[in-house]
Design a protein that fits this description.
The chain has helices at 8-22, 38-47, 59-72, 92-96, 103-114, 148-160, 167-184, 246-257; strands at 2-3, 30-31, 53-56, 82-84, 122-131, 139-141, 143-146, 197-202, 206-218, 237-243, 270-275, 278-282, 286-289, 292-295, 302-313. With 317 residues, the protein is α+β, with helices and mostly antiparallel strands.
Length: 317
């Protein structure tokens, strides 16, 4: 198990997880303090030939570990299946894998599964390879948020989370602030900023341009709330883009809430595409891939492509 003691959930739960590991000597527990230590951690973990690699941290920790697994080659051509504990603020990846609630309870379930045949619980997940520089190694993740979504995520992290409120309350306040700005057309440092224009190019489908309240690219089966994105199989990358129109955002929100996001795609300003390559270009717009932030530049598009699938352990929902 790879743990990040500085992830939000671990601040309160790591002592319990350490106690659990002390009572289960078959768990090889490695803690890192910084993302640049994850390569050495995985190199060491690979030597014990683990049946399962459990990542104990938020989405940013998972993203850093997936990037190192993909680029580092520490496990050769046969990396162990990855499991994710529900620790952190967002936990989109953990939720997609059916891992939620108390992290120690989830860990106990994973340890029980590891003692038997894992195959019924193994699922393949496509990954996103992001390149901001064509010569650099790709950054690997599963969920990218951009434009107004990234700005709102950063607003929540920088303005709301420091208030010390429960996650649910923090997210509700963020949503209220966003809707206040959109409907009342207010500009204030106490509200999320207005998104900048973006040009999104989808191979085989052509470009989409505008100011987007929400821009997301994912390989996850579910996103944001409970709606299954479905799709027609035209590509592993699923793009959702909702323009800065209150009616478009509300229709998409309620369609997603009731599990029928596809019904909202006929609404003006709501776009859903599947692709095997997406490029995003604009002037100083934030993009966040599972916790790591990038900024767009005019003339230097950020390119997203599929990475090799990886096996994950899915707990029963």
């Amino acid at each position: 198990m790879l743990s990040n003691p500085k992830s939000t959930g671990n601040i309160a739960q790591l002592s319990r997880i350490r106690d659990y590991c002390a009572d289960h000597p078959d768990i090889f527990h490695y803690e890192v303090e910084r993302a640049d230590q994850i390569g050495d951690a995985l190199r060491t973990i690979a030597r014990v030939l683990p049946k399962m690699l459990i990542i104990n941290g938020g989405d940013g920790t998972v993203q850093a570990a997936l990037t190192e697994i993909h680029n580092g080659g520490h496990f050769g051509d046969d990396p162990p299946p990855v499991a994710v504990l529900p620790n952190g603020k967002t936990n989109l990846i953990a939720l997609d894998l059916g891992s939620y609630g108390d992290p120690v309870t989830a860990l106990d379930r994973l340890v029980t599964l590891a003692q038997s045949d894992l195959s019924p619980h193994i699922v393949a997940r496509e990954l996103i390879a992001l390149r901001a520089d064509p010569t650099a190694r790709p950054v690997i993740g599963m969920f990218l948020g951009g434009a107004g979504l990234a700005d709102t995520m950063l607003y929540c992290r920088d303005k709301i989370y420091p208030l010390g409120l429960p996650n649910g309350v923090s997210h509700a306040l963020t949503a209220i602030a966003l809707l206040t700005r959109m409907f009342l057309r207010l500009q204030s440092r106490f509200l999320p900023p207005t998104p900048s224009p973006l040009l999104v190019s989808v191979r085989r489908e052509g470009p989409i341009s505008g100011r987007f309240a929400l821009l997301a690219v994912t390989t996850l089966e579910k996103m944001l709330l409970a709606s299954d994105l479905g799709g027609s199989g035209r590509g592993p990358l699923k793009l959702v883009a909702i323009e800065e129109r209150p009616v478009s955002l509300l229709k998409a929100f309620f369609a997603n809430l009731f599990g029928n996001f596809g019904a909202a795609t006929s609404t003006r300003g709501v776009h859903f595409e599947e692709a095997d390559e997406i490029s995003i270009e604009g002037e100083n717009t934030n993009l966040i891939l599972d916790g790591e932030m990038f900024r767009t530049q005019v003339g230097r598009p950020i390119v997203l492509r599929p990475a090799a699938p990886l096996s994950f352990v899915r707990l029963a929902a």
